[in-house]
Design brief:
The structure is a homodimer of 125-residue chains.
Chain A: H1 5-16, E1 21-22, H2 23-31, H3 39-51, E2 56-58, E3 66-68, E4 74-79, E5 85-89, H4 96-100, E6 104-115, H5 117-124
Parallel strand pairs in A: 4-6
Antiparallel strand pairs in A: 1-3, 2-3, 4-5
Chain A binds a DNA duplex (30 and 30 nucleotides) through helix 1 and helix 3.
DNA sequence: CTCCTTATCAGTAATAATTCCTATTACTAT
DNA sequence: ATAGTAATAGGAATTATTACTGATAAGGAG
């Protein structure tokens, strides 16, 4: 995998921010540094970076896929009030019964939905 | 919420099969019984049924949303070999640290990805 | 440093999934 | 029966993502 300028910018953007972005948001952010980058390039590189394990995807009930430069296993919380995605430590999961049946687990995703602390405070007022 | 013929057929189809279907598959299945039902109607009713808690959605790394008539909390396993989605019991999760911070959790989704027992067997041959 | 191969690029067209719109029909309560 | 509301079929529109094409540039060999 060649380390192109475009790929470098996309990866460093995702690594520099502990947040979750969809392809369009990444496109807009990277365009500030590479004005004529195309959306197709963003998608292609995001795909390659995921394949390579440099970043991960977060699938939620929202329509678009979010990309995350923080790749250690963790749980996501989507706030249905403000839409923000929060990171939390994973609780212990062994998935032993599943593995014992002969299933190979390569990837694990947990997404919680609800209302975050901030939005809960606002609602009380 | 009116229990229309269309809504009834969609719901009973999902309840009768312990499997996971996307909107097009449900459309095709229900069309066998209501030939002139429209895809828009299928989507609208799926949305209402989800809102009402009669069915749940499963978001995966595949592009389309899957709908599930089995609403008790459970974990999904997506096989990257055959594409089949399996159901498993949830392990115990308290999410206590998250709740203690003032977050309200309304919904929890865990999706595992890997290779199922059947596909593992086939690969060995 | 220069050449060469080939992955990658920008730009654009195509596809797929989902949502929206409009005229019409069905149900409910008066 | 009538008015008012909710749901429908059918199709158009939107959104997210992928595929295609000729041009460009990354990285290795000499």
């Amino acid at each position: 995998m060649r380390l192109t300028h475009q790929r470098e910018e996309i990866l460093s953007f995702l690594r520099s921010r502990r947040a979750h972005f969809n392809a369009t948001e990444i496109y807009d952010a990277v365009r500030a540094r590479i004005p004529n980058i195309s959306l197709g390039t963003v998608y292609r590189n995001l795909g390659k970076l995921v394949e390579d394990g440099e970043i991960i995807t977060v699938e939620t009930e929202n329509r678009s896929i979010y990309y995350d430069g923080y790749i250690a296993p963790h749980t996501h919380f989507v706030c249905n009030g403000c839409g923000h995605i929060y990171d939390f430590e994973d609780e212990e999961h062994s998935f032993k019964p599943i593995k014992d049946q002969g299933f190979t687990i390569n990837k694990q995703r947990t997404v919680l939905y609800g209302i975050c602390t901030e939005c809960n405070k606002k609602n009380k007022k």
